[in-house]
């Protein structure tokens, strides 16, 4: 398996795709710049199988509808944010981008709890990591030693919790109980900024110094 990162959209949200040797891929958080994203996929002859959302803030879902319609693929999201895709107020687009209305159809698949998720040859351990938002998820690919953590954990920082549904202590608990339990050499593919590792954040993240 291989994976790629590409910052997209108004907040340069990291879009990720994990691919296999057959040219298939799983998309994480297509945040915007849909033409750039689709061109990137077609230039590399990658066939997406699904869109996995870590959460449904507007900067993570801006290209969902166009990508889903172009490749005829399903969307997965936590049930706690099932209405955020269709509601610009809940996903924040109407608040942060005046006059904007970012939305998409309801997701084909609702994730209702922690589980093992298999799509084609791709397998993930789905971790519930709320705090940044009520339905935040992290997708851990054990064999590839990478976790797609959305806006839960960043290099040297953690997700903001001052948005509707945010909870600072809950986020810290999610990071401590779920993400820091992963092997220290696990790559953390964050929603913004550079990648990091679990071990690096355990040793040097100032927000986690009490753990």
From TrEMBL:
<dbReference type="InterPro" id="IPR051453">
    <property type="entry name" value="MBL_Glyoxalase_II"/>
</dbReference>
<dbReference type="GO" id="GO:0016787">
    <property type="term" value="F:hydrolase activity"/>
</dbReference>
<dbReference type="InterPro" id="IPR036866">
    <property type="entry name" value="RibonucZ/Hydroxyglut_hydro"/>
</dbReference>
<keyword id="KW-0479">Metal-binding</keyword>
<keyword id="KW-0862">Zinc</keyword>
<feature type="region of interest" description="Disordered">
    <location>
        <begin position="187"/>
        <end position="211"/>
    </location>
</feature>
<feature type="compositionally biased region" description="Polar residues">
    <location>
        <begin position="187"/>
        <end position="198"/>
    </location>
</feature>
<dbReference type="Pfam" id="PF00753">
    <property type="entry name" value="Lactamase_B"/>
</dbReference>
<keyword id="KW-0378">Hydrolase</keyword>
<dbReference type="GO" id="GO:0046872">
    <property type="term" value="F:metal ion binding"/>
</dbReference>
<feature type="domain" description="Metallo-beta-lactamase">
    <location>
        <begin position="12"/>
        <end position="192"/>
    </location>
</feature>
<dbReference type="InterPro" id="IPR001279">
    <property type="entry name" value="Metallo-B-lactamas"/>
</dbReference>
<protein>
    <submittedName>
        <fullName>BH2820 protein</fullName>
    </submittedName>
</protein>
């Amino acid at each position: 398996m291989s994976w790629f990162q590409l910052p997209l959209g108004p907040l340069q949200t990291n879009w990720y795709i994990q691919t296999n040797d057959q040219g298939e891929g799983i998309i994480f958080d297509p945040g915007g710049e849909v033409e750039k994203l689709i061109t990137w996929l077609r230039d590399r002859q990658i066939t997406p199988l699904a869109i996995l959302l870590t959460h449904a803030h507007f900067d993570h879902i801006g290209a969902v509808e166009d990508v889903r319609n172009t490749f005829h693929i399903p969307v997965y999201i936590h049930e706690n944010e099932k209405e955020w895709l269709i509601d610009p107020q809940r996903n924040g687009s109407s608040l942060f981008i005046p006059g904007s209305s970012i939305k998409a159809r309801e997701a084909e698949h609702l994730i209702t709890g922690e589980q093992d998720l298999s799509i084609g040859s791709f397998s993930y351990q789905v971790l519930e990591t709320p705090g940044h938002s009520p339905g935040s998820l992290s997708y851990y690919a054990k064999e590839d030693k990478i976790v797609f953590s959305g806006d839960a954990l960043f290099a040297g920082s953690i997700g903001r919790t001052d948005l509707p549904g945010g909870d600072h202590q809950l986020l810290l608990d999610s990071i401590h109980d779920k993400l820091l339990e992963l092997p220290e050499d696990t790559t953390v593919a964050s929603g913004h900024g550079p990648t990091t590792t679990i071990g690096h954040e355990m040793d040097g993240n100032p927000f986690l110094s009490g753990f």
